[in-house]
Structure formats: C-alpha cells, structure tokens
Specification:
- Helices cover 27% and strands 16% of the residues.
- It has 331 residues and is an alpha/beta fold.
- The chain has a single domain, classed as Rossmann fold, CATH 3.40.50.
- It has a 10-stranded mixed beta sheet, sandwiched between helices.
- Strand 7, helix 8 and strand 8 form a beta-alpha-beta unit.
- Helix 5 crosses helix 7.
- The chain is globular.
Length: 331
Amino acid sequence: MKSLTISILLLSFLMSCSKDDQDVINPTPTFQTPYEFISYDVLPQTTDPNITTGLSTQYAYLPKETTVRKNKLFIFLPGTFANPQTYLKILQTASEYGYHAIGIHYDNTQTVSSYCGSTNDEQCAANVLKEFFTGMDYSPNVNVGQSNGFINRIQKMILYLDAQKPNENWKQFLNSNNEIKWELISLAGHSQGSGHTLYISKQVNLLRASLFSGPNGFTLANGTYPSWVSNPGATPNSKVYGFSNKNDNLSQWVFVSNVWSVIGLTGTQINVDTETNFGNTHQLFTEVVPPPTQGSASPTHGSTTVDIVTPLNSNGRPKFENVWKYMCFPE
C-alpha cells in the first residue's frame, strides 16, 4: 500500500510541562502525554482516481488509545498555494484531544477574489465557493468538477480510510448513504481556507467553524459585502470562531476584523498574548511577530497555525494550543 503509510509517533511537542505553562498556555490534556497516535498519508487520487486537481498528500490522525476518542472529526483546509503538510501540528493536536482529523487539499492556486475581480455582483464569490464546495457547475468563472469538490474529497478520504482500517470507525462520519454527517465535523481553514470554511458553515450545520487569518476578501466594488456574508447560516454564530494576527501583512487586521463584524462574531476582541480567560468571545488575536523563516512568505500571516512559523513554548508545544482547543475541539 505505497500511498498509505502508517506511523505511530510520539508527539515531541506534547511533552509534560510545568504547572505554570499548563496554567498560562497549555491546559492539561485529558490523558497522559506524551502518547501515541496513528497517522496516515494518502494521495487524493488514491482515494478517487477522478480527483485531478489539488493532488498534494492528505493526512489523517487519530489517537491510538480507543478510550479517548470523542467520535468527532476535525477537518483543516489550507490557504492559497499551501498544502495539508503545512498544518500538521494542529491536526496532531486535534488527535491529542480525542478527535479523528484529516487535512484536505484542493485547487488553491488562485484566490477566490481573483475569480471575480472588481464587481458588485453579490453572487459571484458565493457561486465560486459553492462550486468548490459541491463540485457542481455554479459559476462560469471557475471549473472545479464534481470529483474535485470538497464534498467528494472528504467523502472519498473517509471511505478510503474506513476501507483500510475499518476498526478505527472512520465510517461513523458518514450516514448510510455515505453523506457527510456535518454535525460531527469541526471545520477550520487558514487564509483562503477560512473563506471556504465560512461559506460551508452557511450551508451546513457544523460542530464548529474556525477561521484562521481570515477571511479578508469578498468586498464588492462599492465597498460593501455581499448579503450572504452577514445572513444567518446553517451553522449559528455561536459555533463560529476567528483567530488572526494584528500584524498580518497579507490578511490585514482592519479587513479581517471588519469581516468578522459583518459576519456577527460575538464577544470582544481578546489578545491571546496577554489574556488566558477568553470570556466566551469568538474574536481572538495575537500580535506575535515570528522571525523571517525560509519557506514562509509571511510569518505573521502563518503564525496562527502554519507549522514552520507558529510559535512554540520552551517545552516544544504550540503556544496557541489552548486557542486551538478553545476554538476547534469542544468536548
């Protein structure tokens, strides 16, 4: 099984930490660490030979110990030009908190706004996003194809994992018709992926929808936002969260925070660098400035979740682990 590799890894960043670190940054996990998890890497076209775009390796994780599995699935969508391998730490962290987790690829070689340009057409971006979601022909501006849509990619990844490892219960995330049980899905995305996550949250009722470093697009030529951004969605705003960097030079804070306001994200804006009590807010930010890093076009943009630039504590654990848990991994 060349395209599927299985490894049981020790999470170096899950080493036990001091009481101060646990209290301030990293909540104590619900089971002992370090611990073993199971990981898989799978080419999208292995799950479905009809998938022809977004062909970077996809990843899956789950806890080895069956008693800590929560029977919930975390799915992460990468930003423009990125691939699932860019975001392994958050996938691994999901498995720490008992989630099955998968990183999905897609054709992200263009931004969503580039498909529409400057327009006052309220439906342009929505139709592009709908086509990426369903794979069906909704927009003349993009040609996704049914097999390359998110729905098919997720379904086929789950079915493939279930076929290879039926005892791991991947099939629980599909119903008897192999339709995705969205209510069991915590969906998150970075940058462009956050825009897809927002749109999908409007269409289906998710367990959680988490927006990292975005969205910062969708503005119409007249400076307003299309009504679908502010309209209530299938996922209520009580389950939608945002986390961005005030120093982000790509998804600038003024635009991201404005989109959050239009969406109707609740609570005050909380700085996670100085506050550990988030007070039930859904608007979180950092001001951390990672050093220039080879392979990262913008360390501040990637700081919220990109492996090579997201900051670590002295014990090797992600500094924003408590933020990820708060946003993405409800009990």
